[in-house]
């Protein structure tokens, strides 16, 4: 019985040592589990913070994209207006060039007309001089004829 008791005590002692070892292991595992939980919670918080940061960046980028689209629409509208203005300016330029060409043609026509007028004036003056000369000659002839008539009358009366 003593021997059996000693064996049982030895077994109990071994079991107590085993129990203490397992309790130590269990405490270590619980501590490790607690550390892992804390670590996972921190990682979860970090991930949550990262997700929030990404969401904020996404919202910011969405706002920027909307602004960029609005800006692009305004620029397209302004570009269309400038294109229309450019077309109008080109048409006006062509009209001005056509007007200048017309003006140049009118100027040239006026120059030609002036040359003709000068020629006609010169020619008219010459014709007027000839007419005057002819009129003077006719007057001289008329005077001469009158003189001859008088001479004939005086000769006819005096004979």
Structural key phrases:
mainly alpha
Concise summary:
This protein is mostly helical and 159 residues long.
Describe the structure.
By secondary structure, the protein is mostly helical. It has 1 helix and no strands. The chain has one helix at residues 2-158. The mean pLDDT is 89. InterPro entries: ENTR1. Keywords: Coiled coil.
Please write out the topology.
Elements: H1 2-158
Largest sheet: none
Number of strands: 0
Number of helices: 1
H and E string? H
Radius of gyration, taken over Cα atoms and rounded to an integer in Å: 66 Å
SS-based class? mainly alpha
Percent range for β-strand residues: under 5%
Q: How much is the average pLDDT? A: 89
Q: What is the rounded distance between the termini?
A: 226 Å
Please mark out the parts with pLDDT under 50 across 5 or more consecutive residues, or reply none: none
- Which percent range fits the helix content? over 70%
| Overall geometric form | rod-shaped
GO biological process, one term: positive regulation of cilium assembly
Coiled coil: 19-99
Protein name: Endosome-associated-trafficking regulator 1
Family: Belongs to the ENTR1 family.
């Amino acid at each position: 019985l003593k021997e059996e008791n000693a064996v049982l005590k030895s077994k109990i002692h071994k079991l107590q040592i085993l129990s203490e070892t397992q309790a130590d292991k269990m405490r270590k595992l619980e501590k490790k589990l607690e550390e892992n939980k804390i670590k996972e919670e921190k990682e979860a918080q970090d991930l949550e913070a990262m997700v929030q940061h990404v969401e904020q960046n996404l919202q910011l980028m969405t706002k920027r994209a909307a602004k960029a689209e609005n800006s692009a629409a305004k620029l397209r509208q302004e570009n269309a207006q400038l294109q229309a203005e450019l077309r109008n300016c080109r048409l006006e330029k062509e009209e001005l060039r056509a007007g200048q060409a017309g003006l140049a043609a009118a100027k040239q026509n006026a120059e030609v007309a002036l040359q003709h007028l000068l020629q006609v004036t010169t020619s008219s003056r010459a014709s007027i001089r000839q007419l005057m000369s002819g009129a003077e000659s006719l007057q001289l002839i008329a005077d001469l004829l009158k003189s001859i008539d008088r001479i004939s009358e005086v000769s006819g009366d005096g004979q």
